[in-house]
């Protein structure tokens, strides 16, 4: 068994980003030396990290607006102790987590996007 790198999320995102860059060059039939960033912009593709954040935000919005799935819709609204300018916004409270692994759960990551 090989030890996991210190920041496994970064390495997994990096691998996905390399795959996406290769795919965008293939789709555009561009040489390997072409800028993947420019090609992604032409295709209106988001980089991997931004795509993950976008997808979590979309799932969170759909869960909050439809309330069809009980195990996902138990997200708690943020209720400040006093009136703030952000009181009218639909914010979620972010729970404190003791373990770094538990921050990967949807109920936690959805609140921090």
In angstroms, what separates the terminal alpha carbons? 33 Å
Helix and strand content put the structural class at: mainly alpha
Percent of residues in helical segments? 40-55%
Q: Which consecutive residue ranges, at least 5 long each, have pLDDT under 50?
A: 1-5
What's the number of structural domains?
Answer: 2
> Whole-number radius of gyration?
19 Å
Report the order of strands and helices.
HHHH
SS summary, helix count: 4
Question: What's the mean pLDDT score?
Answer: 76
Secondary structure: number of strands: 0
Q: How would you sum up the major sheet? A: none
What percent of residues are in strands? under 5%
Molecular shape? elongated
Describe the secondary-structure layout.
Elements: H1 8-28, H2 36-43, H3 48-66, H4 106-109
Helix pairs in contact: 1-2
Tell me what the structure shows.
This protein has 113 residues and is mostly helical. It folds into 2 domains: 1-45, no CATH class; 50-113, no CATH class. Helices cover 46% and strands 0% of the residues. Helix 1 crosses helix 2 (36-43). Mean pLDDT is 76; it is low at 1-5.
Keywords:
113 residues; mainly alpha; 2 domains; 4 helices; 46% helix; disordered N terminus
In brief:
The chain is an all-alpha fold.
């Amino acid at each position: 068994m090989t030890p996991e790198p210190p920041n496994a999320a970064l390495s997994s995102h990096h691998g996905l980003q390399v795959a996406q860059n290769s795919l965008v060059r293939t789709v555009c039939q561009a040489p390997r030396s072409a800028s993947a960033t420019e090609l992604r912009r032409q295709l209106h593709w988001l980089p991997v990290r931004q795509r993950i954040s976008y997808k979590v935000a979309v799932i969170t919005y759909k869960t909050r607006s439809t309330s069809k799935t009980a195990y996902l819709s138990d997200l708690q609204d943020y209720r400040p102790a006093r009136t703030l300018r952000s009181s009218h916004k639909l914010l979620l409270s972010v729970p404190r987590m003791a373990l770094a692994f538990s921050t990967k759960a949807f109920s936690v990551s959805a609140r921090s996007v």
